[in-house]
Amino acid sequence: MKLVAEVRNEQGRGASRRLRHAGKVPAIVYGADSDAVAVTLDHNTVFHALKKEAFHTSILELEVAGKTEQVVLRDVHFHPYKQLVLHLDLQRVSATEEIHMSIPLHFLNEDVSVAVKKQSAHITHVANEVEVRALASNLPQFIEVDLANLQAGQTLHLSDLVLPAGVKLEKLLRGDDAAVVIAGGIAEVADAEVVSPADIPAAKGSDE
């Protein structure tokens, strides 16, 4: 994904307010052993891009003053009640240095898994994203978790995830093999005793 930005010379609350009124979003670009640069972006372009999952997890191409560099979205500030983006933090990435990112998990075949379809188990997603470490060229937009063979009572851990080449999980590097998905035990339905109307004795009238 590509963004086009302009260098921002004016700074401060007043300048930022004027930019927003003009349909611009102030942002800061930093990292990769280079000076931080204040820039502005088109608000509508950013607003719609933020609705896409890939914008939050992908390497972005940022063009500033005719020069293109790779960045990732590190932070975004929204207005508390208006549909307005107030500020972005963009971090430069290096082709030779690993970066840390939160990557979403995409769960596949949950409805047709053994646990759900054959064993009536309930599946709980303990984690919906994971922290990874990778070179920019190896960074995935998401990680798929196939639940087709998940059994009732089974737990999938971080070590069970199939990772793209060159991608490492931060928690595993620290020795924490946390749970990702839990399939609860087989649902048990108690057999209720059904009493038919024929089994109910007729009420006797009182003799007077």
Structure description:
By secondary structure, this protein is mostly beta strands. The protein folds into two domains: 2-92, Ribosomal Protein L25, Chain P (Beta Barrel); 99-183, Beta Complex (RNA Polymerase Alpha Subunit, Chain A, domain 2), CATH 2.170.120.20. It contains five helices and 13 strands. It has helices at residues 13-21, 43-49, 53-57, 114-118, 170-173, and strands at 2-7, 24-31, 34-42, 60-64, 67-78, 85-92, 99-108, 123-125, 129-134, 143-146, 155-157, 168-169, 179-183. The protein has a six-stranded mixed beta barrel. A four-stranded mixed sheet has the order 10-7-9-12. A hairpin with a 6-residue loop joins β5 (67-78) and β6. The termini are far apart. Mean pLDDT is 88; it is low at 188-197.
How is the secondary structure organized here?
Layout lengths: L1 E6 L5 H9 L2 E8 L2 E9 H7 L3 H5 L2 E5 L2 E12 L6 E8 L6 E10 L5 H5 L4 E3 L3 E6 L8 E4 L8 E3 L10 E2 H4 L5 E5 L25
Parallel strand pairs: 1-4, 2-6, 7-10
Antiparallel strand pairs: 1-3, 2-3, 4-5, 5-6, 7-9, 8-13, 9-12, 11-13
Give a quick account of the main beta sheet: strands, pairing sense, barrel closure: 6 strands, mixed, barrel
Residues in β-strands, percent: 35-45%
CATH class categorisation of the largest domain: Mainly Beta
Rg of Cα set:
27 Å
**Helices and strands, in N-to-C order?**
EHEEHHEEEEHEEEEEHE
> What is the architecture of the largest domain at the second tier of CATH?
Beta Barrel
* First-residue to last-residue Cα separation: 93 Å
Can you tell me the CATH topology of the largest domain? Ribosomal Protein L25, Chain P
Form type: elongated
Number of helices: 5
Number of domains: 2
Specify the CATH homologous superfamily of the largest domain: Ribosomal Protein L25, Chain P
The chain-level structural class is: mainly beta
* Strand runs, count: 13
Spatially, the strands of the biggest sheet line up as: 1-3-2-6-5-4
User: What average pLDDT do the residues reach?
Assistant: 88
Question: What kind of oligomer do you see?
Answer: single chain
Helix content: 10-25%
The stretches of 5 or more residues where confidence is low (pLDDT under 50) are 188-197
